[in-house]
């Protein structure tokens, strides 16, 4: 048996039973397999001489390995990896395109690799598979010369997994290089069992996500925009910055909707951020719009008390804090996870004044602070299906089970926020997901059990906030769904809910005034 296992290692397959790290809560996984040896290489097999690999490709490959092995987030680990490697602007751009592009289209590339290797992708050693994915992206989706893509990827395998695995990789990649992207697309789609599977292979989205996005678009009467949305998910997003009101002025080019938003002038945006002391920072325009909408949902009265209930990592909190500072309003934040609470405090350093950051369970926050706040942002934990273009690995990690797990949490958080509202107060329920179960489904579930809540016209509020007319399709509810393909933003959802005012509530308001 051991001899058979060794032979499989040499041709790029795992040498024993699959020992993939098992998923844990919050997307954490173990980063090392039992025994400490990399999969696909015998402990006594020589790796051969070190071979030259372009630094940009090495960085991209290391990011792919971290994502595969330890559930790392590419957007968090790529910038420090680029800095540590000392990459210049051109190589940094190449590393980013290679890593993000490979991660986005992983499902499609796995189907092509499986066809070329004549075996399922999951039977190929993970380290070898990541190198094959990286090379396939270069061969089929970039202008990188075929010989460079093949040779350097084979060198990657040879330097990490040994000569036997590199021979296997070389054979697979040369088969892939012999056909055009169109020919590969036709070949893998011919094996699809349904139209949705065919679309999944073509667009590099799991079938369940395609169906969820189609339903969300159909709710607006725009199911025919699905192809445009899938294409937008696979495009590299522009970097958008926010200028905190009263502390910084937006630069150029201005973004079309949020008056606080502008595009990155080019180069490393973190240099701009550092130069302003944090009063300018990276933030999607959709994220800015939903925070601005909460502030604009009703005239602001001096002395109001605001809350960001699920504040981590703190981008929307800082924007609300800047607005609150301009109107003599007190803002508080809550984040149950201590490490994320520290991120919130760091995000708030650029805003003068004190913001109390609680570390309580948001589901019980309303019970411990009943009727205490005039405006509350509930940026609920969600699947993040609205930010697939920014988090390229997310589409392959999420499953329908995540939705089923998150929806009860979202219902509890929104219900808790409504309990924490003063009479006349307003909650903004926000998700970075267009999945109907996480958006309208949650709102409807919460409203079904309450008679003290009125839903406001969030579409009208957002139109009033926007610097130019914004195309907001509706389902008749007044809720807002933003879209990457239509607005150039993440697919943010927004509903505004107001607690019915009472005579006692009016009296409390007068006391605060």
From TrEMBL:
Q: Which GO terms describe its molecular function?
A: methyltransferase activity
Feature: compositional bias, Low complexity: 16-36
Q: Which residues bind S-adenosyl-L-methionine?
A: 310-316, 335, 361, 379
Q: Name one GO biological process term.
A: methylation
Where are the annotated segments for Disordered?
Answer: 1-57, 245-269
Magnesium keyword on record: no
PROSITE patterns assigned: NOL1_NOP2_SUN, SAM_MT_RSMB_NOP
Q: Which residues form the active site?
A: 432
Q: Which UniProt keywords apply?
A: Methyltransferase, RNA-binding, S-adenosyl-L-methionine, Transferase
| Composition skew (Basic and acidic residues), residue ranges | 1-13
Domain SAM-dependent MTase RsmB/NOP-type, chain residue ranges per copy:
201-500
The record, for Pfam families, names: Methyltr_RsmB-F (PF01189), NusB (PF01029)
- Membrane keyword on record: no
Instruction: Quote the EC number.
Output: 2.1.1.176
- What enzyme category does the UniProt record give? transferase
- Belongs to which family? Belongs to the class I-like SAM-binding methyltransferase superfamily. RsmB/NOP family.
- Protein's name according to its UniProt entry: 16S rRNA (Cytosine967-C5)-methyltransferase
């Amino acid at each position: 048996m051991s001899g058979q296992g060794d032979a499989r290692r040499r041709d790029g397959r795992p040498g024993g039973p699959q020992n993939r790290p098992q998923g844990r809560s919050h997307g954490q996984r173990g980063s090392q397999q039992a025994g400490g040896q990399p999969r696909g290489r015998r402990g006594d097999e020589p790796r051969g001489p070190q071979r030259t690999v372009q630094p940009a490709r090495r960085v991209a490959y290391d990011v792919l390995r971290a994502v595969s092995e330890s559930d790392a987030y590419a957007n968090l680990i790529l910038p420090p990896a680029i800095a540590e490697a000392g990459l210049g602007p051109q190589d940094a751009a190449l590393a980013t395109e290679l890593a993000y592009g490979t991660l986005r289209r992983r499902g499609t590339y796995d189907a092509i690799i499986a066809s070329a290797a004549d075996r399922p992708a999951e039977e190929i050693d993970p380290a070898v598979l990541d190198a094959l994915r990286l090379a396939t992206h270069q061969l089929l989706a970039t202008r990188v010369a075929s010989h460079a893509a093949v040779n350097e990827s084979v060198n990657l395998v040879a330097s990490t997994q040994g000569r036997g695995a590199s021979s296997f990789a070389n054979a697979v990649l040369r088969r892939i290089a012999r056909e055009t992207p169109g020919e590969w697309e036709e070949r893998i789609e011919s094996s699809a069992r349904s139209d949705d599977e065919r679309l999944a292979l073509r667009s590099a989205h799991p079938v369940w996500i395609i169906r969820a996005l189609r339903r969300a678009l159909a709710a607006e009467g725009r199911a025919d925009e699905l192809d445009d949305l899938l294409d937008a998910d696979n495009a590299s997003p522009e970097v958008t910055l926010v200028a905190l009101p009263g502390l910084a002025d937006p630069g150029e080019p201005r973004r079309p909707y949020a008056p606080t938003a502008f595009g990155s002038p080019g180069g490393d945006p973190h240099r701009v951020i550092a130069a302003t002391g944090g009063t300018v920072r990276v933030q999607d325009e959709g994220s800015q719009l939903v925070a601005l909408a909460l502030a604009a949902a009703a005239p602001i009265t001096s002395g109001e008390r605001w809350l960001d209930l699920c504040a981590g990592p703190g981008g929307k909190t800082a924007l609300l804090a800047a607005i609150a500072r301009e109107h003599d309003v007190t803002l508080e934040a809550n984040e149950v996870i201590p490490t994320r609470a520290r991120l919130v405090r760091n995000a708030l350093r650029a805003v003068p004044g004190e913001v109390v950051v609680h570390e309580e369970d948001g589901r019980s926050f309303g019970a411990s602070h009943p009727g205490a706040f005039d405006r509350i942002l509930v940026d609920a934990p969600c699947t993040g299906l609205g930010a697939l273009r920014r988090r390229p690995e997310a589409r392959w990690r999420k499953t329908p089970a995540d939705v089923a797990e998150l929806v009860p949490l979202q219902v509890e958080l929104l219900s808790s926020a409504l309990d924490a509202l003063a009479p006349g107060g307003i909650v903004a329920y926000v998700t970075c997901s267009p999945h109907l179960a996480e958006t309208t489904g949650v709102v409807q579930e919460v409203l079904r059990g309450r008679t003290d809540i009125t839903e406001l016209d969030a579409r009208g509020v957002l139109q009033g906030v926007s610097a130019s007319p914004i195309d907001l399709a509706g389902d008749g509810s007044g809720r807002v769904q933003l879209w990457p393909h239509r607005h150039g933003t993440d697919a943010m959802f927004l509903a505004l809910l107001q607690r019915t005012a009472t005579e006692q509530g009016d009296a409390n308001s007068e006391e605060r005034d």
